[in-house]
Structure formats: C-alpha cells, structure tokens
C-alpha cells in the first residue's frame, strides 16, 4: 500500500488484520461452538474437536492470507485500493486460489506431476474441509471449518465490509479492532444469546452476505464515516450524555433491523467549523455498543455455518460429489498433460498426433465491481509468496535447427509419416530425417516407444468396487520393458513371459483412474492403458436404541429398574449386509445373549443379574465387508434403586407416639427424579405419599407425619398425613404403578417385623439395602449405637434418620455369629464389631482390599473358629482398628475429635482355626482383660496364622501372641507396644512352630520378641531395634528356648539377647550387634 508522508512515498504492508488472532478470534470461535452445542439436538462437538476448530480460526491469519479477509457486499468486492484482491467470500470457497500458496502443489502442476484437486497443504477452503471430514481426515476438516469461521467473524467487522484497510501505524488503525483485542477465551461475553435460535441459511454465500451486510449497513469504520461510497448507516437521532469525566458529550444513535438502538458516533459540533465525528469517546461506550451487537452476529451466523458444514458433510457422504469433482479435476490435469506432451512432440519430432475430447482449461473469472466502477487487476498471490517457476526441460540438440526457431516464426512444414505398425520394419539409417549427434557414434538414436501394455487382466474391468485401499494390478506387456503408472512412482519390470504385477495404494475413497504405460531401456514411453476402480472402505452408519432408556431414572445416564430390555438397531445404508451385536457385563460376555450376527433389527433381553452395568455394542456391515463405527449403549440395572430403609411406625416416645416418620434411601450413584414415585400403605392406602423433587446419589430422604417437627433437627423432605397401625402394615414404594420395594407381609411376622413400641421406642431398620424388603430376616430393631436426630422434645431418637442404619454396619444382622461364608466388600464398609463375633468352624470370612473393620469397645472381638482371609494390597490395605479411630473409615462415632483411639480400645482377633493377613494394619486392640482372653492384637492357641506385609501396633499388652500355634511372620512390622510392663512385640510359647522373616520388630517396652519353651522358632533377615524404654528392655528374651537366628541385626537395645540357663541360640551366621548397651546375656551366648 502506498502513503505519502511529508512528501515522501512510503510503501507499507496493508496490515488488514481484523479481530486479533491470538485473543478475539479464538474467543469468538469458542462461543460459536458453545452456542452450536447448546442448540444442536443431534450433534455435539467434543472439547478436542473444538480445539481443532479454534486452531483453524487462529491459523487463517498466517502469512498473507489476511489480504483476502475483506468483503464489501455493496460492490461485491474484496480489498480494493490501487489493485483489487479476492473477497473473503470468494477466497473461502476457492480451492485453487488457496492451493497455489503451496509451492509443492504448484510445482507438481507446472512440472507435469499429476495429483488430486484436494492435495495442497495450504488449502483450507469450504469444499476441501467438507471433503476431508467426510472421507476420513476429520482434523483437516475441522481446521478448515475454523478458517471459514475466521472469515465470517471478519465479515462482522465494519472495516472489512467497508473497504477500510486500517494499517496499525500512526493514527490509521481501527479503534474497534484495537479495543476488541482485550476479549479472550476467558473474558468474552457475546451478549444474551441463550434464547436465540440458530440462523439457518441455504449456502455459505448467504452467511457471508448476511454478516457483511449487517456490519456495512448499520456501522461505521473509522475512515468511512459518512463516506460517499455508502449511503448507510444513518443517524436516527442525537442525544447528550454525561460521561465519567463529568463532561457532556453528543452522540449520534443508530438502529438495526431488530430495533436495537445504539451509540453510532460521537459528534463534536462547533459554530465555526464543520462537525467532527469519532468512534471513540472517553468511556468507550460506542465501541462497547458496536461489540455487543457485532460479536453476537458473529456467533449466531458462525453457529449456522457450523450446522451447514455438518449438513454438507452428510450430503457428501450420500452423493460423493466432491469425490467425483476431485477425480474430474485430476482427469483434466491428465488431459492437459497429454496435450502439452503432444505439443512438445510436434515441435521436436514433427508429428501431429490426434487428440480428441480434450477439456477446456479451467479459468477463474472475476466479476467487475458494481456501480459502474472501472475494474482493477485481481492480485492472486503477493510477490513475496509467488511459487518458483518450474522451467520446462530444455531439448536442443545442436544440429536440429528447427527447435531453435523463434515462436514468432513457424517452422517449415514437413511431410508427416503415418505411425509405424508393430510389424512394419524400421527405416534404414540413410532414410532418417535426423542428423547424427556429435559424440554419439553416428546413426539414429532409439526413439521408438514400446507397445503399450497389451492387456490389464486384474482388475478385469473398469469401475469394479473394492473394500480395500491397496489393489494389485496385473497384466501383460512387452518384455524387457518397465510398467509405470500415473498414481505413484512404483514400477515393475516385465517378466520374460510378458506378465507383470504391481500393487498400488493407499488409494483414495471414490473413483480413481490409473494410466499404465510401458517404458523401455532407452526411456521411451508407450501410450497408456487405463483402469478405473472405485474404493469404498467407509462403513455404513448405524443407530442403536434401548427403549427403557427413554424412561431412565437418571438424566445423566441410562438407569432402570426393569430387567427386560428392548433393543432396536437400524442402518439406512442401501448396501447393508448384516449387523453385529455384543453384550458385556462386568468385563465378560453376557449370559444368554444369544445374538451376534443377524439381519434382525430388534431383540428382547432379560438380564440375568441385578445391580449390574450392561454394555451393548452394535455394528453394521455392508456387502463389501466394510464395518461401521461401533454404536455403544450402557444400561445400569438396579431393580431397587430406591428402597424403604427405616420406619418409625411407633413414633418417637410415649408422649410422641403419633410422631411417625419413614426414610427412603437411594442405593445408586445417580440423582433420581421423584416424579411418578409413590410411597403408600398397601394395607389400607394410608398414608399415600406422592413424592416430589429429587433424591441425591447414595442419600437419604425423610418423610415426617403431619409437620416438620417430628425430627426437630432434621428437615423433612416432605410431610404427609395418615397413621401407620401399630398392629402392622405393608408399606410399598412404587414407580409408575410398578412396585419397586415393600416391607414383609403382616402374616410373616404377625405384625411389624422389627421396631419396639413402648420403652425405648426403637425404629425398624433395614439391614442390607440391595436385598429384598419382603425378607423378614433383612429387618431388625435399632442396634443401640450410632443414634441420630432429636424428637420434638429434643430427646434422642433411637434410630438413625438421615444416616446409614446402625445394623448395616454389622458383619451380620445379629452381630454375633457367621454361619455361612461371607465376603466383606469395600463398598459396604466400614464394618463394626460390637461383641464377640464368632466365625463358626468350617465357615470362611473373606475381607476384600480396602475394607475397614472397627471394634466398638473392650468387649468386642473376632473369634475365628473357621477361616479368616484378610488379604489387601499395597494401595488398598485392610484395617482393623478402634471405633474411635477417625483416620480410617471416617468419624464413625460422630464425635469429631472429642475422643481419640488408644491401646486396648478393643479385644482381639483370636485365631482358633486359620487366619491369613496380607497388607493389613492391626492397631489399638489387646485390652488387658481380667480373664486374660485378649491382651494381644492377634492371638492364636493351636491355630494357624500367616502374617505378611502387615503392621501390628499399639496393643494393650502384646502385638502378637502364639501358644502351641503354627505362625509365620514375613515382611511385617511389629512396633510401639509399650503400654504395660509386660508389653512385647511377639510372644511365642509352648510348641509353637514360628517363623519370623524379613521383618522389623521395634520400640516395644518389655521385649521385642519373647520366646518361652520354644525350640522351633527361626528368626532370619530381620531387624530388632530400639528396645530401650527401661533397664529391663530386651530385643530378644529367651526362656527355656533355643531359636535359630540368621542374618539378623540387633540395634539400639538395652540388652540385645538375654537367655536363661536352659536356653541357647543356633547361629546361622550374619548376626550383627550395633549400638546395644549389652549385646548378650550371658556374654558367650552366641557360639
């Protein structure tokens, strides 16, 4: 661009950027996608795809592309100064104009190499984007969409619709564009658009016209205020406003087609000179008004373009129009190549071959601007980006003067010879019309092309359809020649039997025509034989629906209590062959789902398991074997998503017997809408409660009779009327007339199956949420612990309203005996032991990783007469601890920090049968009871115990105690048992066969290890340390015992090893003493 400054002519770049490419364009594009997702019912653009679109909108300002970002809808022109550039409307839709910026693409065309129309690295045009997205390169398609949105956004900038180049130097820049740079993806607010509708237009041209016409007709740019070129906009009224500096300013106001009034210009009037107009006022109110309206138009029109893009993609998949256009352009290039080749042959060799059906060269026409203006030259590419010209091959033998003839002087006419047939003899050397080339040895050079390939045997005919992108072509050709092709640089030497085979790929989707020629050793190339193939590797589309998901209990997923599912699937592909279906549950194939390959479109499936997530997958296969993307639907089946969890049918006290309440529990991980749910008495329909609102995941909902004061410190979800009879009723929970849950029949228990009316007024609690409510064994009265809530008199309620039921913490409902095998799940924890809980002989209690088991008080213990398997993992340990220990399993006793755990809080884990502990933590047990039944965290008499990778600590007396037991302690830590004069880490007595290996025994008061009458204990690869609490502290104390010790360190102990006169040590080697006050007593204990 040229400007005259101070008498000097400066040549400046145009700097025609509109919105800032680093802030405003990404922000507007982000809002366009958000609005599209808000309004689109069938298609949502993912976060990842959104970033591709935004990146495209940023990249459109790269290089010199910005020169094509102007579109004046009044004169139908691009940027027009001394010369004229393409309009953004043309640029965005002109594949070849954008492609020529790719030097490699241009070089291929100029040099004769054939390539597809959609092959340029700089082409992000509208059709290119649709083509790429439809046929596999979705990223390129989304980037192209971003480039187009950039142009639509620029069309809403007045400078770009009113031919105002606004270079950002001196005071020539655009006030509007400079001001809008502050809006980025975090700060943008395009106005109130949530209630707007998508703007639906027929074509991309329509969106350019609508966007540019709006900014041109209703808004000024800095250099076009009341320009003679434009009759709009006009000032509809004037007004005075006081701004923040306390001064009055005059504004001219405009109005758009929607009736939106806004500040159009600031007017400075003076009686001595013409008015001055400006787009900037001290408070920037004009620019703010411009932005609020123009940014909104950018978003609304941009979202419409997004919809149009995806509509065109679907149309392309059906019509393959751009596939055919891509091929048609390639065909034209092939024809152009042939024509140029024959012209060259005519000049060089004096032959005139026949060319028929040659297509016209594609040209680009530019319409002159409207209004009778003189047309100006269209600049296709700025000089700094012009691709290098590729020179044609120079053929100039020094003796062939005809080649050097000037273009203005035609060569003399020559007699043309008919082409030679394959059987016609070659002319002798003296009849040659060519002179010998110096240094070539004389005679005629070999310039006769070989015969074209005789036949292409595979594929056997044109237009066969293949479901692969790699095809092997076979045929016959003249031996000792090389078969070349127009698709790739791959070649093949023809065999002596004249057969050849050549594999080509990957071939593009749609129609491809490949020319095959033979080339001899002298470089002569035959005429070509072609073969046209059609590639179709695109799978059909498929839809899958599960009818029951239409009534999902959750708005965020498919959640249903129904155990019979109706599946439907379909495809509109006209070449459909069959469907493939799968069903998975918990990572395995579903039971009794007896359909995999089918032509059916529906099935009914009765799920075999409750409380299970089922995943259904469907694919469509066409007649060529192309498989669709997998359509997946996930269904969560929970037959009792809501349950009746607790009933205070007896009231809350003797004086509050009418204060009844009921509790509902959501067993799922989803919020459930309570519309269509009813809780009622099946017995007499009273109460009848139509539920409303919603219930959160895993939460509890309280319904109080009469008023909200029944439970004074908990707000009721709803209140109801009608009493429950103390003699018993059946309460049921229904969803849309289907019974989901109900309490046992009156006859089962002769009334209510649990709860106490009178005395303590104990509520009726459910034990297992997912087990049947009609099972009488699934109910019990409040357990006497973990009470919650106050009644209307502020007295404690003997129940757990709004909380997990007390009996649900117990290992079994009665809390005392396990008579059948059971596994404790992490999801069901924490668990609570309130008394001596006995695992019967022959019964196994399995504890899963991550489970926390708490013990209520000093009278609570686990008595294992059968088998205990407590096997955690390094990341999910199993914990046995005190009821007061909030570090694991939360604040179960609900007292915050009022109480803290300590040694001897609970009894013991007594192993009379067998017990295995791996990755466990056992702490705060071993109460020192008067009958000496407990004393240790873990104890065993005549049982079998294996402890691995575990920590045993903070016992009342002993960490571990074994008598006549078989015990193995491996890779474990026994520590901090310091709270009694007899406190020790490990105590072994009698005939116990004990192994201590790879373990640490530390900081125990009396002894780290105490062996009494033990002759079979082995200690190896271990560390015994820090037993210094008193003068009598010992690392290892031996009474009538003779252990074997190997590779073990005794460190920082008062006495490392002390033995009485009847004890001894078998030294296996590697015993180390370090930092002990005394190593051994007696001194010569270690042989």
UniProtKB/TrEMBL annotation:
Residues 398-408 have a biased composition (Polar residues). Residues 942-1077 form the Right handed beta helix domain. Residues 409-425 have a biased composition (Pro residues). Residues 641-737 form the LTD domain. SUPFAM superfamilies: Lamin A/C globular tail domain (SSF74853), Pectin lyase-like (SSF51126), Phospholipase C/P1 nuclease (SSF48537). GO terms for molecular function: hydrolase activity, acting on ester bonds. It comes from the Bacteria. It holds the Pfam family LTD. Residues 360-462 are annotated as: Disordered. This is Right-handed parallel beta-helix repeat-containing protein. The lineage of its organism: Bacteria, Candidatus Sungiibacteriota.
